[in-house]
């Protein structure tokens, strides 16, 4: 496994549309698949039919979310994985909502409860490459 730089991680993340948001629900970890887009160094996700996620982000001044995406070939096991941890906010600006809503339509084809932006604080990733045999 080869560690990736933050810039490489965000570039790879921008190349895929689906990932998993990680958050706390009832003091336990929760994970949900969501669509995303990377713009201006932020990850924008749609909280499709996720009122608990929207409510949690709205209720906290500095809500912390994790976001993970990967692209790994099931046969060769080659690929990459990226994890972002950062502060989240609901996007309330109508212009930003109009701009991003079509880009992060829910993968379940439900209406998004809200659009959420994650400002990356910690960005890590690994490329899974072929290893040499001993």
UniProtKB/TrEMBL annotation:
<keyword id="KW-0560">Oxidoreductase</keyword>
<dbReference type="InterPro" id="IPR012349">
    <property type="entry name" value="Split_barrel_FMN-bd"/>
</dbReference>
<dbReference type="GO" id="GO:0016491">
    <property type="term" value="F:oxidoreductase activity"/>
</dbReference>
<dbReference type="InterPro" id="IPR024747">
    <property type="entry name" value="Pyridox_Oxase-rel"/>
</dbReference>
<dbReference type="Pfam" id="PF12900">
    <property type="entry name" value="Pyridox_ox_2"/>
</dbReference>
<protein>
    <submittedName>
        <fullName>Pyridoxamine 5'-phosphate oxidase family protein</fullName>
        <ecNumber>1.-.-.-</ecNumber>
    </submittedName>
</protein>
């Amino acid at each position: 496994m080869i560690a990736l730089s933050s810039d490489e991680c965000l570039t790879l993340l921008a190349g895929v549309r689906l990932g998993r948001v990680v958050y706390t629900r009832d003091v336990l970890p929760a994970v949900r698949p969501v669509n995303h887009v990377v713009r201006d160094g932020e990850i924008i996700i749609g909280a499709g039919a996720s009122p608990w996620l929207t409510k949690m982000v709205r209720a906290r001044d500095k809500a912390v979310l994790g976001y993970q995406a990967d692209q790994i070939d099931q046969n060769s096991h080659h690929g990459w994985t990226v994890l972002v941890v950062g502060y989240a906010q609901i996007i309330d600006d109508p212009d930003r909502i109009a701009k991003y809503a079509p880009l992060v339509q829910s993968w379940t084809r439900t209406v998004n409860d809200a659009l959420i932006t994650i400002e990356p604080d910690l960005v890590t990733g690994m490329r899974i490459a072929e290893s040499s045999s001993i």
